[in-house]
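fyi for ur records
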Amino acid sequence: MLRTPSGGAGHGTAAADGGLMSIGTVLNVLREEFPEVTISKIRFLESEGLVEPQRTPSGYRKFSPEDVERLGHVLRMQRDHYLPLRVIREHLDAMARGEAVQLPVVGRQRGGETVLEPAEGPTAARVGRAELLAAAGIDESDLKEWESYGLLAPLEGGVYDAEAVTVASLVAELGRFGIEPRHLRVMKAAADREAGLVDQVVAPLKRHRNPQTRAHAEARTKELAALTVRLHAALVQTALGVRLP
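which gave:
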C-alpha cells in the first residue's frame, strides 16, 4: 500500500491543505513503488479520467490521499496485469460503487475473435488490434503510420503486447504538441539499444544451469529496466536544463 505524507518536514503544504498534495509530492510518493512514473504519466492518467484532482483558484492540481491510492491501483494493474486503461477504469468505478468485482480481464485472440480471460500474468498480456485502437483513442490510419516507423509492431497472430496501449497513448499525447511519429524514430532506436544492453547483462543468468538463477533473470531485467528509464529521464532533463518537481 502506498504511504501518503501526513505532515512533518517537507510536507507542511500538504498538512496545511488538509492532506491535499501537489503533483510533485504525489510523484515522490508513487516513486517508492513505481520508480518509472513521471509527471507526464500522472497528467495523462488524469486526462483519461482515471483520477480527478481538485484545482486551486490559480489552476494548480491538489491530490487527496484517495487520489494517490487510486493512482497506485492504476499503475499496479498496468504493471502486474498488463491491462488497458479502459478495463482499469471500469474496474475501479465498480469498486467505488461498492460492487463485488473479480480480477479484471484482458483480450486474447482465438480463432479470429477476442476472448476474455483472467489476467494472471505476462502470458495473458495481449490485446487485439480493435482493443488497442479503442484503448488508445486512435484510428486505423494512425496505427498503420506508427507501425511504418517501427513504433509499434504486432506479435504473432496479429495481437499486441499490452504495453502497446501505453506506447500508442504516449505517441498520441506527444502528437498534440506537434511531435510527429517520424520524429520519434530516434527514441525507438535509443530504446532498442538500451534493451540490448540490459539483455547483454542478464544473458548469462538466462543461460545458467540452475533454474532458480534463470528465474532470477526476470527480476534482474525489471530492475535494470527501471534504472535505465530513470537514467534516461534524468539525462533528458539535464540536457534541457529543466527539473521536474
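The CA atoms of residues 67 and 166 lie 21 Å apart. thats all i got for now
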